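[09:14] KT: can someone run the structure on this one? pasting the chain below
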Amino acid sequence: MPSAVTFDTLAYVKRLKSAGVPEEQAEIQAETFAEIIEDRIATKQDILVFKQGLEELELSMKQELKLGLANTKAEIIKWVAGMLVAQAAIVATLVKLL
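[09:31] RB: done, structure tokens below
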């Protein structure tokens, strides 16, 4: 994706030259600086895309969490129901023995 950040290398070279930097060094420095800006500075569009990705991830994680909680709830209900049946069987057996 092209960067929306612009950097005027010619103006930068002229400023460096006027400050006494040799032309070749000024050109190399301007090119390097332009590459750094192009490769490493996030644009508003980059941030929006990243934000969208985060929002999608958040939604996905919420859905997974809800599904996990529903499954856990179902497992707990199964265990409790099983324990109630077992408890009822034990109570019935004890009533018969007494």
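[09:33] KT: thanks! Residues 19 and 56 are 50 Å apart (CA to CA).
[09:34] RB: yep, looked fine to me
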